[in-house]
Write a structure and sequence with these properties.
CATH class of the largest domain: Alpha Beta
CATH superfamily of the largest domain: 2-enoyl-CoA Hydratase, Chain A, domain 1
Low-confidence stretches: 7-12
Radius of gyration: 22 Å
CATH topology of the largest domain: 2-enoyl-CoA Hydratase, Chain A, domain 1
Number of domains: 2
Helix content: 40-55%
Number of strands: 8
């Protein structure tokens, strides 16, 4: 497997090639210059494919956290129309780390719910770094129940380090809010399609991710805890996060093998942030296909399949001694 030093060197090579293209683009281009530019671009694509075909789990964590990856509002802009945001949980306040609203998906009325991160400091504080508080989860389930009332399919987008762990969130019932969402989403009588677009952090992600279909972008991650948190608990050493990332089996390939997700969505070469529009178009196609399949199911069958889907998750082993005692 390609190690971190080799990956770094190959990325440096890509940057050098891009600088050469920029220099050539500034001069008056003759046929020879244009051919050289095309040759360099082809070389960049070859190197990029080689780099991204051999990423380690820890490197995929970094990709999932890339600040330029598309967020929920970006996907709403490209995949939906007539979006009207809904604010507040009608109990405490509004949480800007989760966006919810009504929209149209290829003309059909739907509801969209998703985590929202930010890119500059002011917006990061406004969005609480994508970490929802209880009022965020209560707002989400309020809007999802509205979707059920008006028979609108639900699309959720997951990208959060996890639920906010502050004292104020605990005082307002963070654990209860997440648990309530899990129960209520499991029995909503409308199709639910979930897409993990970046970080899928613990219960903070799962609280709006109980879907009939769960898609995951190629370089997204989904885990019960962050690699840094796992390393701190297991080895009292957060610097072993890279080792923890491998042990957690948090990549799309791992989760697909464990049947915890349904489909891996390929990203543009170099990640979703290199071509957000292409990623949105690809996602749009998958969402259309998923929605058509779910809408064809009778509602009772939809609920039954959703229930069985989550009952099948996990692996259970019986100790040999207990098994022998049971047989006797």
């Amino acid at each position: 497997m390609t190690n971190s030093k080799e990956i770094y060197e190959q990325r440096e090579n890509i940057q050098d090639l891009e600088e050469q293209i920029n220099e050539l683009s500034k001069i008056n281009q003759d046929e020879e210059s244009r051919q050289e530019i095309e040759r360099l671009r082809a070389r960049i694509e070859r190197v990029r494919r080689e780099v991204f075909s051999k990423l380690t789990p820890w490197q995929k964590v970094q990709m999932a956290r890339h600040p330029q990856r598309p967020y929920t509002l970006d996907y709403i802009q490209h995949c939906f129309t007539d979006f009207i945001e809904i604010h507040g949980d009608r109990k405490f306040g509004d949480d800007h780390a989760i966006v919810c609203g009504m929209a149209r998906f290829h003309g059909e009325p739907v509801v969209v719910v998703g985590h929202q991160k930010a890119r500059d400091t002011k917006q990061k504080v406004f969005r609480n770094f994508g970490m929802p508080k209880p009022e965020g989860y209560r707002k989400a389930i309020r809007v999802m129940k509205m979707a059920e009332k008006f028979q609108r399919p639900i699309f959720t987008f997951i990208d959060t380090p996890g639920a906010y762990p502050g004292i104020d969130a605990e005082e307002r019932g963070q654990a209860e809010a997440i648990a309530y969402n899990l129960r209520e989403m499991a029995r909503l009588r409308v199709p639910i399609i979930t897409t993990i677009t970046g970080e899928g952090g613990s219960g903070g992600a799962l609280a709006i991710a109980v879907g009939d279909i769960v898609n995951m972008l190629e370089y997204a991650i989904y885990s019960v805890i962050s690699p840094e948190g796992c390393a701190s608990i297991m080895w009292r050493d957060a610097s072993r996060a890279e080792e923890a990332a491998t042990a957690l089996k948090l990549t799309a390939e791992d989760l697909k093998a464990f049947e915890l997700i349904d489909e891996i969505l390929q990203e543009p070469e170099g990640g979703a942030h290199t071509d957000p529009l292409a990623m949105a178009r690809s996602l749009d196609e998958h969402l259309q296909k998923d929605l058509a399949r779910l809408k064809s199911l009778p509602i009772e069958k939809l609920l039954s399949e959703r229930y069985e889907k989550y009952r099948r998750m996990g692996q259970f082993f019986e100790k040999a001694s207990a098994a022998a005692a049971h047989r006797s």
